[in-house]
């Protein structure tokens, strides 16, 4: 037994020593290395995918910015053209009213078609080529001189001319017409507050004037431009009710239809 015990110890030591493998051959360590490599690969893939996703999102944002910039430019273009369209509408309306006046009031203040610059648009305050008519001492001559300035699109000068006429000839038979055309100089320059007050002056001081239907119509237009839509609707309905067979009533109906469409 004394001899067997040392032998068994040697065998056990040999067995234990044989179970200890070098790191490059240890299956556990090899598996850990493999897993570590796989994790590293996954991390790189995820990192690359994240970068690609970020790059894609950035490109989408850039495209949205480009679209927004284009939309902004389009809105700016529309805003610039809005005033042009409104002035064109004003001229169309005014010429229709003038045509009616020429048929009903020969020799009064009907304006011939406006003189337009090459772009087809009157420029507020611009001086059109040609000498301005000089007023003389009579109310008729002074009135016609101011009206000629308005016809030429020389709105500041026309405004001054009508103001001077009102101051010099307060008792003239043309006073209601002069107040109306003074209001028009404000309207075409988009001073809608002053234009509204001046059109209302025609109605208050000269309710039986031939300009009353047009003044009431333009008062409604001014209220519309000032976004006083309830007041504009009421005023335009008054035009239709009071002057049902007039051109002013037809134009008031068209604007009422627009207001109704915009409120839907």
In short:
The protein has 9 helices and no strands.
Q: In percent, how helical is the residue content?
A: over 70%
| CATH-assigned fold name of the largest domain | Serine Threonine Protein Phosphatase 5, Tetratricopeptide repeat
Mean pLDDT: 76
Q: State the secondary-structure class.
A: mainly alpha
- Tell me the series of helices and strands, N- to C-terminal: HHHHHHHHH
Number of helices: 9
Mass-distribution shape: rod-shaped
CATH class of the largest domain, anyone? Mainly Alpha
**CATH homolog superfamily of the largest domain:** Tetratricopeptide repeat domain
CA radius of gyration is 43 Å
* Known CATH architecture of the largest domain: Alpha Horseshoe
Largest sheet: none
Strand content: under 5%
Tally of structural domains: 2
Number of strands: 0
SSE topology:
Layout: H1 4-19, H2 27-104, H3 139-151, H4 155-168, H5 175-188, H6 192-205, H7 212-225, H8 229-242, H9 247-262
What does this molecule look like?
With 264 residues, this protein is mostly helical. It has 2 domains: 25-82; 133-262, Tetratricopeptide repeat domain (Serine Threonine Protein Phosphatase 5, Tetratricopeptide repeat). It contains 9 helices and no strands. The N and C termini lie far apart (113 Å).
Key phrases:
2 domains, 264 residues, Serine Threonine Protein Phosphatase 5, Tetratricopeptide repeat, mainly alpha, 9 helices
